[in-house]
Amino acid sequence: MAVLKDKKGEKAKAEEEILEEVPEEPKAKAEKPAEPVKEEAAKPSFFVYLGPSIRGYVQNGAIYKGSRADVEKKLALQIEKYPRIKRLLVSDLTIVEDRVNITKPGTRLYAEYKKFVAELK
User: Fold this and answer.
1) What pLDDT digit, counting tens, does each position of 64-104 carry?
2) CA–CA separation, 41 vs 108, rounded Å?
3) What is the pTM of this model?
4) How far from 112 is each of 3, 33, 74, 85, 96, CA to CA, in Å?
């Protein structure tokens, strides 16, 4: 019977040794907290004109880099002749929703677009 106890003891030791040899899985790295959103990221970096194209003045889908004030300065002559251009400039932060809203009756952009088209005729 002593032999059986020794074998069990040896087996137990052998299993412990095997477990010691297997490297432990690396612990999951502590996730870094998300960095605060920079104020610059919240500012629009470009504007898109979603109104109708007017030959020689402005084209639908035209992209203008800079702040709203910079874009309005660039388009000062066009806005002077057609003030609704200013209302149909949308920022990069809202372009996705605005492209839908310009075709959806009951929205501000839809109304501006339809009034502008009527003025051009």
Assistant:
1) 999 999 999 999 999 999 999 999 999 999 999 999 999 99
2) 26
3) 0.64
4) 96, 43, 21, 9, 18
